Amino acid sequence: MAMTVIECVPNISEGRRADVISFIADSLRAVPGLRVLGVQSDPAHNRSVFTLAGDEKALAIGIPTLFEKAIAAIDLRTHAGEHPRMGAVDVVPFIPIEGVTMEACVALAKSVAADVAKKIAQAIRMSSGGLRFVKAMGIPLEGRGLVQVSMNLTNYEKTPIFRVFELVKREAARYGVQVLESEIVGLVPSAALTQTAEYFLQLEGFSADQILEKKLAD
């Protein structure tokens, strides 16, 4: 049987805390079939580079493990270093070495990315233990390099928009990701937006009767 070897060189935003780096490396070594060939850390950049090798199965297990351990240990709100950073786990290139094509590595990268990115939607939707009255799924927007959390809120009075939005932000922060924007597709009850404005603007004693258009319509 032909051997399949893929090299993977993930970068994490931690290059100073030896205990954290060793813990992540040991977690990767525990994955069957995955080899940790090297770990290089730069305290000035506050960044470490892991050189890994294995087949598709080993990397499909190992890279989500890397994300899980790194995200739990690295807080980008307090992170400082010379190197620009996009997340607790920064870049994760897959490189064909033996018995595998570049196309297969691209497919593996997309599969692993989807597995890591969909976790936000999983945390908020009702069917997987999240918020009531929320249906959600993660959708990769490959043309923009983003992942969208697409949702239906079936009862905004019981689970308001602002509560769902705040949970998405918190879950995204766990993965070192910021929410870029939000959008509303279709029509929305004005009460749902008023409710959201009250929350984010911390309005005290606000009434829908203070909305100009409503007053004119009345």
- Low-pLDDT stretches are none
Tell me the number of structural domains.
Answer: 2
**Percent in helix:** 25-40%
**Which oligomeric form is depicted?**
single chain
Keywords:
7 helices; 39% helix; 7 strands; elongated; alpha+beta; Alpha-Beta Plaits; two-stranded antiparallel ribbon; Formiminotransferase-cyclodeaminase, Chain B, domain 1; five-stranded antiparallel sheet; 218 residues; single chain
Mind explaining what this structure looks like?
It is built from 7 helices and 7 strands. With about 220 residues, the protein is an alpha+beta fold. The protein has 2 domains: about 5-115, Formiminotransferase-cyclodeaminase, Chain B, domain 1; about 120-215, Alpha-Beta Plaits. Strands 1, 2, 3, 4 and 5 form a 5-stranded antiparallel sheet that branches. Strands 6-7 form a two-stranded antiparallel sheet. Helix 1 (about 20-30) runs antiparallel to helix 2 (about 55-75) and helix 2 (about 55-75) runs parallel beside helix 3. The chain is elongated, with a radius of gyration of 22 Å. The N and C termini lie far apart (about 80 Å). The model has no long low-confidence stretch (mean pLDDT about 90).
Secondary-structure map with pairings?
Layout: E1 5-8, E2 11-12, H1 18-29, E3 35-42, E4 47-54, H2 56-73, E5 94-98, H3 102-117, H4 119-124, E6 134-141, E7 146-153, H5 161-174, H6 190-201, H7 212-217
Antiparallel strand pairs: 1-4, 1-5, 2-4, 3-4, 6-7
Helix pairs in contact: 1-2, 2-3
